[in-house]
């Protein structure tokens, strides 16, 4: 009698997955429906809305559904790409949101408090809001005019109170938004609100820190990126402070470009007359003022040398170097203002570099003899226009020279009277 062969069986222990370890399906629609149901019970009172959101955070998993939460609080429902709301039934949106209600600052500030208190309660929402804003700002073409105004005003409040960084505004630099003028209109609304609520200095400080000042022209449509239009737009919106700030920043960039070119010319030992021609071209091109240029010239010329560490040798080295470039300085000290800017910068340089403390008077004398500085400017500097840096030391150094200048002036006047 034959025996049946025993079939092989799988052995081992079956591991059961605990319920809490099972990954729940990502369900933003279900999350939205839960929030909308809570809003419906809470009514239109924002304090009741906040209390619901505060209590629901432990159940609704804001960490996972943060994007959906902010979509609802801003637009009243889930946002699809392009800025439209996801439509999947009758109860897919609510008017109890930032976009609901009127355009007043009272309405916007009321919702700002809801967002602020919620992010204080659930700190991880701060980073999620930043990501949300980068997305939502790209969608503004899908919003109506009223919605864009409310979002711009809220953006101004959020940036000014630190809820989101100013750099999120760079999301507006999108080809279609810029071309249609939407990016610029939104930005102007943000700036106007910010200035009204926090002041112009707060606005310009944030722009500088975020580096947005250099990219402001990129918010303008390509065919409107002219200096005249730039000025007109900011003047019409009462944003002269931003205009002045941007011009100052652009001017600073131009001076850096000039300084870089000058450094290259000096390192290549180009003839001084060629350097003068190059600087004059830059002055015309960048609309620079002479008193601004002269300090850059001094900084660059003095920065081109490895100075001797010995105090007794640095004077000879400095005077030899400066004598070579005296025609360059003379070419850009044609006004008393630029002369004064130069002598004050020389004073500050000698104060900041201890080996030059005793060289100041010799440099001034050299510049006087080479027609870089006039006697009127030197006397004015001595009497009233000097810097406080090393004041007593440098005035003492200059006292005999000043006395000589004044005596020579008096003798000249006497001779003229005779």
| Helix-strand sequence | HHHHHHHHHHHHHHHHHHH
- Count the helices. How many? 19
What's the mean pLDDT score?
87
Helix content: 55-70%
Task: Count the beta strands.
Answer: 0
Shape: elongated
Head-to-tail CA distance between termini:
155 Å
Question: Residue ranges: pLDDT <50 for 5 or more in a row?
Answer: none
The Cα radius of gyration reads 34 Å
Q: Report the β-strand fraction as a percent range.
A: under 5%
Which class do the helix and strand fractions yield? Answer: mainly alpha
Topology diagram in text:
Layout: H1 28-42, H2 46-60, H3 66-75, H4 105-121, H5 125-136, H6 145-160, H7 175-179, H8 182-198, H9 200-210, H10 227-236, H11 240-267, H12 272-286, H13 290-303, H14 311-324, H15 326-331, H16 336-352, H17 360-369, H18 375-385, H19 391-417
Helix pairs in contact: 1-2, 2-4, 3-5, 4-6, 6-8, 8-9, 11-12, 11-13, 13-16, 14-17, 16-18, 18-19
Explained architecture:
The chain has helices at 28-42, 46-60, 66-75, 105-121, 125-136, 145-160, 175-179, 182-198, 200-210, 227-236, 240-267, 272-286, 290-303, 311-324, 326-331, 336-352, 360-369, 375-385, 391-417. It has 418 residues and is mainly α. α2 runs parallel beside α4 (105-121), α11 packs antiparallel against α12 (272-286) and α18 (375-385) crosses α19 (391-417).
């Amino acid at each position: 009698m034959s025996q049946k062969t025993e079939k092989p069986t799988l052995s081992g222990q079956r591991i059961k997955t605990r319920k809490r370890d099972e990954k729940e399906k990502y369900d933003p629609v279900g999350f939205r429906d839960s929030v909308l149901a809570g809003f419906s019970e809470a009514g239109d009172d924002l304090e009741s809305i906040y209390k619901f959101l505060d209590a629901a955070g432990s159940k609704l998993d804001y960490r996972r559904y943060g994007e959906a939460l902010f979509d609802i609080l801003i637009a009243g429902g889930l946002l699809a790409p392009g800025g439209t709301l996801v439509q999947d039934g009758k109860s897919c949106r609510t008017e109890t949101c930032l976009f609901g209600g009127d355009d007043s600052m009272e309405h916007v500030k009321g919702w700002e408090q809801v967002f602020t208190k919620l992010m204080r309660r659930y700190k991880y929402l701060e980073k999620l809001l930043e990501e949300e804003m980068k997305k939502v700002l790209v969608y503004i073409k899908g919003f109506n005019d009223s919605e864009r105004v409310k979002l711009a005003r809220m953006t101004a409040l959020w940036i000014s109170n630190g809820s989101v960084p100013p750099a999120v505004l760079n999301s507006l630099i999108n080809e279609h938004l810029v071309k249609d003028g939407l990016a610029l209109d939104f930005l102007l609304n943000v700036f106007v609100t910010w200035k009204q609520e926090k002041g112009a200095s707060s606005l310009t400080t944030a722009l500088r820190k975020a580096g947005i000042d250099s990219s402001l022209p990129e918010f303008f449509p390509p065919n409107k990126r002219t200096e005249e239009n730039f000025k007109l737009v900011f003047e019409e919106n009462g944003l002269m402070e931003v205009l002045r700030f941007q011009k100052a920043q652009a001017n600073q960039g131009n001076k850096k470009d000039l300084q870089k070119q000058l450094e290259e010319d000096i390192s290549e030992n180009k003839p001084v007359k060629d350097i003068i021609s190059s600087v004059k071209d830059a002055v015309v091109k960048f609309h620079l003022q002479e008193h601004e240029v002269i300090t850059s010239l001094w900084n660059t010329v003095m920065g081109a040398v490895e100075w001797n560490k010995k105090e007794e040798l640095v004077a000879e080295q400095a005077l030899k170097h400066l004598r070579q470039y005296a025609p360059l300085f003379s070419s850009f000290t044609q006004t008393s203002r630029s002369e004064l800017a130069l002598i004050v910068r020389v004073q500050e340089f000698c104060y900041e570099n201890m080996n030059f403390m005793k060289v100041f008077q010799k440099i001034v004398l050299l510049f006087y003899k080479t027609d870089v500085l006039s006697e009127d400017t030197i006397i004015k500097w001595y009497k009233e226009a000097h810097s406080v840096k090393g004041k007593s030391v440098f005035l003492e150094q200059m006292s005999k020279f000043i006395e000589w200048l004044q005596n020579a002036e008096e003798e000249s006047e006497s001779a003229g009277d005779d």
